[in-house]
Amino acid sequence: MIRKTKWIRYAEGSQLYVFRAEYGFDTKFAKKHNQEPHFSITGEGKSVNSRGGDGYFGTCHDKIVELLPKLKPLVRWHLCGMETGPMHYIENALYHAGFWMDTYGDSRNIEHLKSTIVYGALERDDCLDDGSALEEELATMNPIEFRAWLENRFELLMKQFESDIKQHAPGLYARGKSS
User: Fold this and answer.
1) Helix (H, G, I), strand (E, B) or coil at 72
2) Nearest-CA neighbor of 42 among 17, 69, 16, 61?
3) How many angstroms separate the CA atoms of 100 and 157, rounded?
4) Domain boundaries, the chain
5) d(CA 61, CA 94)
6) pTM for the whole structure
7) Nearest-angstrom CA–CA distance, 165 and 77
8) pLDDT digits (tens, 9 = 90+) for 80-135
9) How far is 125 from 112, CA to CA, in rounded Å?
């Protein structure tokens, strides 16, 4: 089930815009492509003053948080499946942690890693704004230890996902799962 917010108006300089968010589990798309439904949250904005060509859409999460702050707790779960968790959880985490085959250590990107593993969703995540705690912990691990760390937090992560969806989008989780 996909939900859409009402259009809201906002201004940037002298330009007036309307904006809405769309969020939920696209079960029709998942069935058509024989895959698990993933939660998604996207936005759409368009200028009120012009005739086409001045719009935007997609994962404009900063704009969603700015204009629809009640949806902020849902943004971190974009592309999270009810069973499999964040899309390609282990593989993407290994890559962004710099543990992926021929890029070992060269591709580390802490911001992408934090997003991929939904770092900060769990109370046990020492979520410092700069990611230094995660980076320090990561420096002490090899790829096998890091994978085990990811697997150990997965069950708690999925419980938090379910809790956040049920709290901030009541009725959405159960319907998405049964469709």
Assistant:
1) helix
2) 61
3) 23
4) 2-82, 87-166
5) 24
6) 0.84
7) 9
8) 999 999 999 999 999 999 887 655 555 678 888 999 999 989 987 866 555 677 88
9) 16
